[in-house]
Amino acid sequence: MPVFLNTRDADFEAGFQALLNAKREDAPDVDDTVAGIISEVRRRGDEAVIELTEKFDRLSLTPETIAFSEAEIDELCARVPAAEAAALELAAERIRAYHVRQMPDDAMWTDPDGATLGWRWTPVSAAGLYVPGGLASYPSSVLMNAVPAQVAGVERLVIACPTPGGEANPLVLYAARLAGVETVYRIGGAQAVAALAYGTQTIAPVDKITGPGNAFVAAAKRRVFGKVGIDMIAGPSEILVIADADNDPDFLALDLLSQAEHDASAQSILITTDAAFGAAVARAVDTRLQTLERAGIAGDSWRDNGAVITVQSLDEAAELSDRIAPEHLELCVENPEALSERIRHAGAIFLGQWTPEAIGDYIGGPNHVLPTARSARFSSGLSVLDFLKRTTLARMTPDALRTIGPAAETLAKSESLQAHGLSVRARLDKLNR
Amino acid sequence: MPVFLNTRDADFEAGFQALLNAKREDAPDVDDTVAGIISEVRRRGDEAVIELTEKFDRLSLTPETIAFSEAEIDELCARVPAAEAAALELAAERIRAYHVRQMPDDAMWTDPDGATLGWRWTPVSAAGLYVPGGLASYPSSVLMNAVPAQVAGVERLVIACPTPGGEANPLVLYAARLAGVETVYRIGGAQAVAALAYGTQTIAPVDKITGPGNAFVAAAKRRVFGKVGIDMIAGPSEILVIADADNDPDFLALDLLSQAEHDASAQSILITTDAAFGAAVARAVDTRLQTLERAGIAGDSWRDNGAVITVQSLDEAAELSDRIAPEHLELCVENPEALSERIRHAGAIFLGQWTPEAIGDYIGGPNHVLPTARSARFSSGLSVLDFLKRTTLARMTPDALRTIGPAAETLAKSESLQAHGLSVRARLDKLNR
């Protein structure tokens, strides 16, 4: 049974706090292991990567076979059924169309003091995308990571994807081609992250590493952060559905289950203005759980982390939602746009009953890599900005320097940074000569 | 003596690589200490913060005196000399004018398939700015951190600034007021970072922590990352000056020294097309070092980390610059705009001989919190974006779902995520009924 809460009840706040504070993931502490792996890869390069791949993925590689060859990729791509290929192409096209709009503008202007100021965006030169192997090897995630990088203009785009026992997912390779990925390395784990960050004899280092992974990958990303850029460290997936009674309970049950089926640690929450409707959705979840393929995982998630919260008003719903700061937020109410304007913290919002969250996972266009674990309070989903950086620009004329230079000199002196002040003063003196 | 290199020499590449790889900072490993401090603060709140402040800052606080009172701030602000106050006001105004232009636009559009898509930016609710105490307590950094937060619309803006022995810098308080800071806590170190991230009885937790600090502060920021957002972990400051022979050697000497005087680990590099001019700048540095207040620090930095590199062309200079990915880049050449367009990786560019880097530190307008240690390859200086996050929006109509829904269903099936597919299928079935 999920938790049932009602804001009318005296113990609501305690129950809601418990829900917020529940630690859903007990990530094993793998930091020492990961530190060892990284230092081995830095020291011995390919040799270490090959040894570790043999050990963890039961796969024998040589420097020549660390990357898939073009012929291998051709062969794997040819195995992708036409319907899947077409679906990936439509997804890539729609994700591209959305992300192209995110490209920020450069700017340059001259202010009233005569200072010319501005900024310019440039792409990172090389990015490495981590793609998990096995069951969690999602071609949709390849598109969600690689397309923004491609749109940003990243020159060299590579993937590291382990192939345990040598098994590769043809759709992953197909998605990689669609998104302009140059090379796919069949390596994974902390060793792949280390190889991407520091480089080996056959793997040139990248500047930015993104993509999901297990505890080893997450710990490795944390460790190489600073040497390279990384995206967020994602936790278990979450959905919050805010719904009035005018909805099909089965639709919402499926939406809740589509997070729950990811992982027993995933969390699905329904907030509704109608307690009876909440109960109907919970019944619909139970019904669907009787036949769902991943009923074990989804059932565990719903029972351990699920919640149905009854509120007195949509205002109250918006307030609770901001405290949860959900990764995915569905607004199944009469006027979802109006409600969405009252929401401040959410990764992605899905408006109205015809927008199931799964549309956003695959084909809607917005990115599905989103902030989890309440981090939507301070961070955003993946975007082209993750593959760009901004250089600021400034040019003073002699007049501009005369106008604003003395204040810089004053502040430099107040901070006891004499050379700073002198670098301005020497120029002013020459101008005044 | 700094290193002198010439791209003409056979051993240039080895020398340049050594310069790139030189580890300039030997940050002590304080991670265990910091982990202990954070757990104490989480467990005992104010009590731990007060004990640690007594221990590290020789200052006795009570829950009532952890924050400066309004009267104390009034009194400190009244001590700021008029010239400094005016300089801070001009700086705040110019920084604000620059950062206002960074505010990104929201977007919402309907695509040919009938899907309405977009995004909306919202500020983080609460931000905490760390301001070092003692010598490195820079009012300019208060403005550079707080003004972008204020422009972004952060509701609650607080500062943590240690006051060793109780000594506060009036200009820091004045700058805080100018930038709309609500509360200034007189605490520092890892205990301040922990208190901001997790909250105590008297300190409400924030969502984002920015600002420079020593090794303890940096380690604490790394540790609380995920619970809250953080800005970059800054290393020692750097400047690269690219200059032709048509410059005043003394100007450039002062610009190089204005980084060198920050810290013995700072790095100042001159790249010039004229070896004789390079030698003249080096002589000018030596001359200035004879009288500079911080000659010890600046001299150590210049001797240990400084470099003068002679190149055959500005193209070569741009290439080397991108490999260095400097925090600050001055282009003192005839056509600095043209050269700037060949640069891909730099935190901030200063164009022409009348734009000393110190202008950017204080008064230019662009932010002075910039990526160090080659991280300009993948990251940007501080901006309003650091205090905003983006929520993506999507709304399908029944027709849009009919058009793109089937592809989502196909991809969900290919990833063995049945509920994802069913959440689309159930809706399509109802629409087709």
Automatic annotation (TrEMBL), chains A, B:
<keyword id="KW-0520">NAD</keyword>
<dbReference type="GO" id="GO:0008270">
    <property type="term" value="F:zinc ion binding"/>
</dbReference>
<keyword id="KW-0028">Amino-acid biosynthesis</keyword>
<dbReference type="InterPro" id="IPR012131">
    <property type="entry name" value="Hstdl_DH"/>
</dbReference>
<comment type="pathway">
    <text>Amino-acid biosynthesis; L-histidine biosynthesis; L-histidine from 5-phospho-alpha-D-ribose 1-diphosphate: step 9/9.</text>
</comment>
<feature type="binding site">
    <location>
        <position position="420"/>
    </location>
    <ligand>
        <name>substrate</name>
    </ligand>
</feature>
<feature type="binding site">
    <location>
        <position position="259"/>
    </location>
    <ligand>
        <name>substrate</name>
    </ligand>
</feature>
<feature type="binding site">
    <location>
        <position position="328"/>
    </location>
    <ligand>
        <name>substrate</name>
    </ligand>
</feature>
<keyword id="KW-0479">Metal-binding</keyword>
<feature type="active site" description="Proton acceptor">
    <location>
        <position position="328"/>
    </location>
</feature>
<comment type="similarity">
    <text>Belongs to the histidinol dehydrogenase family.</text>
</comment>
<dbReference type="InterPro" id="IPR016161">
    <property type="entry name" value="Ald_DH/histidinol_DH"/>
</dbReference>
<feature type="binding site">
    <location>
        <position position="361"/>
    </location>
    <ligand>
        <name>Zn(2+)</name>
    </ligand>
</feature>
<protein>
    <recommendedName>
        <fullName>Histidinol dehydrogenase</fullName>
        <ecNumber>1.1.1.23</ecNumber>
    </recommendedName>
</protein>
<dbReference type="InterPro" id="IPR001692">
    <property type="entry name" value="Histidinol_DH_CS"/>
</dbReference>
<feature type="binding site">
    <location>
        <position position="262"/>
    </location>
    <ligand>
        <name>Zn(2+)</name>
    </ligand>
</feature>
<dbReference type="GO" id="GO:0005829">
    <property type="term" value="C:cytosol"/>
</dbReference>
<feature type="binding site">
    <location>
        <position position="420"/>
    </location>
    <ligand>
        <name>Zn(2+)</name>
    </ligand>
</feature>
<feature type="binding site">
    <location>
        <position position="361"/>
    </location>
    <ligand>
        <name>substrate</name>
    </ligand>
</feature>
<dbReference type="Pfam" id="PF00815">
    <property type="entry name" value="Histidinol_dh"/>
</dbReference>
<comment type="function">
    <text>Catalyzes the sequential NAD-dependent oxidations of L-histidinol to L-histidinaldehyde and then to L-histidine.</text>
</comment>
<feature type="binding site">
    <location>
        <position position="191"/>
    </location>
    <ligand>
        <name>NAD(+)</name>
    </ligand>
</feature>
<feature type="binding site">
    <location>
        <position position="237"/>
    </location>
    <ligand>
        <name>substrate</name>
    </ligand>
</feature>
<dbReference type="GO" id="GO:0000105">
    <property type="term" value="P:L-histidine biosynthetic process"/>
</dbReference>
<keyword id="KW-0862">Zinc</keyword>
<dbReference type="GO" id="GO:0051287">
    <property type="term" value="F:NAD binding"/>
</dbReference>
<feature type="active site" description="Proton acceptor">
    <location>
        <position position="327"/>
    </location>
</feature>
<dbReference type="InterPro" id="IPR022695">
    <property type="entry name" value="Histidinol_DH_monofunct"/>
</dbReference>
<feature type="binding site">
    <location>
        <position position="259"/>
    </location>
    <ligand>
        <name>Zn(2+)</name>
    </ligand>
</feature>
<dbReference type="GO" id="GO:0004399">
    <property type="term" value="F:histidinol dehydrogenase activity"/>
</dbReference>
<feature type="binding site">
    <location>
        <position position="214"/>
    </location>
    <ligand>
        <name>NAD(+)</name>
    </ligand>
</feature>
<feature type="binding site">
    <location>
        <position position="415"/>
    </location>
    <ligand>
        <name>substrate</name>
    </ligand>
</feature>
<keyword id="KW-0368">Histidine biosynthesis</keyword>
<keyword id="KW-0560">Oxidoreductase</keyword>
<feature type="binding site">
    <location>
        <position position="262"/>
    </location>
    <ligand>
        <name>substrate</name>
    </ligand>
</feature>
<feature type="binding site">
    <location>
        <position position="130"/>
    </location>
    <ligand>
        <name>NAD(+)</name>
    </ligand>
</feature>
